Fold:
Amino acid sequence: MKYPNHIEKNYKNPLSYKNRGMDLEEDLNSTNEYYLEKDIALIFKKPTPIGVAKVSYSPKGKVIERAFFKEPSTLDYNGLYRGSYIEFDAKVTKNRTSFPLANIHPHQLEHIKKVIKHKGIAFLIIRINEIVYLLRGEDLLSYITSHKRNSIEYEFIKEKGYMIKYSFNPSLDYLKIVDHVYFKEE
Amino acid sequence: MKYPNHIEKNYKNPLSYKNRGMDLEEDLNSTNEYYLEKDIALIFKKPTPIGVAKVSYSPKGKVIERAFFKEPSTLDYNGLYRGSYIEFDAKVTKNRTSFPLANIHPHQLEHIKKVIKHKGIAFLIIRINEIVYLLRGEDLLSYITSHKRNSIEYEFIKEKGYMIKYSFNPSLDYLKIVDHVYFKEE
Structure:
């Protein structure tokens, strides 16, 4: 018996959940809420920095009438886990063979260096080919130092990164990987 | 020889610098910039969380046409110092005898509890009577637990708080106090 073609197309990759319409940021936000509720960690996405140009006053309070998005010089997420300072950024690429470094601002790279120097934990969470990886800041920086490319090869991410599997709740249990990588646990 | 009355009034308190028109937030921001430049600590004021209601697109990028300020559930400043997670809030009161607790949201108090539980450092920087104090989160919470008042008496802040002196650069060297209080240094 033959199945019509579209069945193959509807096959759901258990690692992707793409069809649920979730994006990486939503998955991380719900995971952080889970960590907060279960009192596992205090990790928040920083509000996007804005420059307010004009405000008005309504009975409900101050209203911003005009503002601009500013470029962040730190990473998007930071917080506290097991007594350690954690900071990371989440990046998605549709590129299948490499992760373009244009995704990371030079001052963000500088910031990663500083976090490591001051004994914090810094990493990237990268989604490439519908798979999510944690890439340590140390590995990112050493790749950039030794390669004169403007992207990170997928092979490198596969080799040095740690796969974060999707699950039901929390959706992306990245602290399990942090335990393994930074706290030397199984 | 008698001085006219106004001379007494113009006497400058060396701890206040009020006449320079600086406010506590500006002083802390410039102090944090100093720490960043000298590579002492990575501490930033979090952007105020906003809810964007309307955006438009200009040749220069996305412009926010309407947005609202949201209530923060964490403290205003956080970062990394000597391998430790630090979070604090800065509060000014014109009240001379006590610090009104209406200045701190209940979820911020909950957050201070959690930061301490997860082995971070949490405190308030309070300016009262033109003097700046660092009050440990632990002391704040124990005061609130044992007193059924809606303010903290100035006497308590004087007794339990640590005075942060104004200086030229950095203007408010609060990490000196952090060293003394949390890292047991002179």
Q: What stands out?
A: Residues 24-37 of chain A form the longest helix (14 residues). Confidence is low (pLDDT under 50) at residues 1-21 of chain A. Helices of chain A lie at 5-10, 24-37, 106-117, 137-146, 154-160, 174-182.
